[in-house]
Design brief:
heterodimer; A: mainly alpha; two-stranded antiparallel ribbon; 12 helices; 2 strands; B: 4 helices; 79% helix; flat
């Protein structure tokens, strides 16, 4: 049953994602700066952000290629980092509209922030999801353009400590999300599994593997 | 620069496919009660995994550095019931400070 006091709708989505707009913009800019420094030119970084729209995968591409890695190595790294979108796409599908093709298109809007902010008791609020994603998308694209064309105007995001913003924001959300014993147990198990896997498997795989912890939901209460 | 363009194109297609797989498989199907129970846990699980991976993960290694200090400080601010933007600001500020001093 939908809770009328919970935010819903596109604008609520945009508002919910607001704390992330500036960090997303600056990280997008840093991608643009990095890509330029690696000789990508002015078009490729912008197109990359448009068609991939996944920061960690884009940085994986840039760093593997920049270190002299092959195209195969680069795309495998990016694919592993993005593999979590598999379970996330599954999670988002029932909340979308239309047949499988339309849902496959709408499902492209799923990103970490929007899935998490739009999740309501195992179901995703479609408008909330789209609202969050739209604002993140605008921030990401503008940031990339600024960084690609504006060079070092915005300074070094690491010097500004901006790499801590996403995990801190996720921490805020976690406190609001893991409110019962079962979700707390799942959170702890996911943390432990991720810790264990980070040194063992390529980046991105720990997060995707940790999604399997949600399967404890199959156990009857 | 064709390696760059090829990588971008392949990654875009692969990412689109990954995101499309779930909706294509499920179509209009509703999830059963058990699947819903699993997905209800996914936000907590995903959040925790992302927090750990992005706070401590550095190129396939666990690192306890300025970012960890910033996130820890954010945790304290959160425990002190600071508003979201302040928590996030504390994270950035502490991380920047520790990094500058280190």
């Amino acid at each position: 049953m939908a809770d009328p006091t919970e935010p819903h709708g596109y604008r609520a989505g945009a508002r919910a994602g607001l704390p992330l707009v500036l960090p997303t913009l600056v990280v997008g800019a840093s991608f643009g700066v990095l890509a330029r420094s690696l000789g990508w030119g002015t078009v490729a970084p912008i197109v990359c952000s448009l068609v991939v729209f996944a920061g960690s995968a884009q940085f994986a591409l840039a760093s593997v290629l920049g270190a002299g890695g092959s195209v195969l190595a680069a795309v495998v790294a990016a694919a592993l980092v993005n593999s979590r979108f598999g379970p996330m796409g599954l999670a988002v599908a029932p909340g979308l509209r239309g047949g499988r093709l339309r849902r496959a298109v709408e499902g492209q809007a799923v990103i970490d922030a929007s899935l998490i902010l739009a999740s309501r008791e195992g179901r995703v609020d479609r408008e909330l999801l789209l609202g969050v994603t739209l604002t993140q998308w605008l921030a990401w694209q503008s940031g990339t353009v600024l960084g690609t064309l504006g060079g070092g105007l915005l300074g070094d995001p690491d010097a500004l400590g901006l790499d801590a913003v996403f995990p801190a924001f996720f921490l805020v959300l976690l406190v609001g999300e893991a409110t019962d014993a079962r979700s707390r147990a799942a959170a702890v198990a996911a943390a432990a599994l991720t810790f264990a896997l980070v040194p063992l498997v390529p980046p991105g795989v720990p997060v995707t593997a940790a999604c399997a912890v949600a399967l404890i939901g199959l156990v009857r209460r | 620069m064709s390696a760059v363009w090829l990588s971008i194109a392949i990654t875009a297609v692969v990412t689109i496919a990954i995101k499309a797989a779930g909706p294509l498989a499920l179509g209009r199907r509703e999830l059963g009660a058990r699947a819903s129970a699993v997905l209800a846990l996914l936000p907590s699980v995903l959040l925790c995994a992302l927090i750990v991976a992005t706070t401590f993960g550095e190129d396939g290694r666990l690192v306890v550095g300025p970012r960890a200090a910033g996130v820890a400080a954010a945790g304290l601010a959160l425990a002190a019931r600071a508003p979201v933007l302040l928590v996030v600001g504390v994270a950035a500020g502490v991380t920047a400070a520790v990094r500058a001093l280190g």
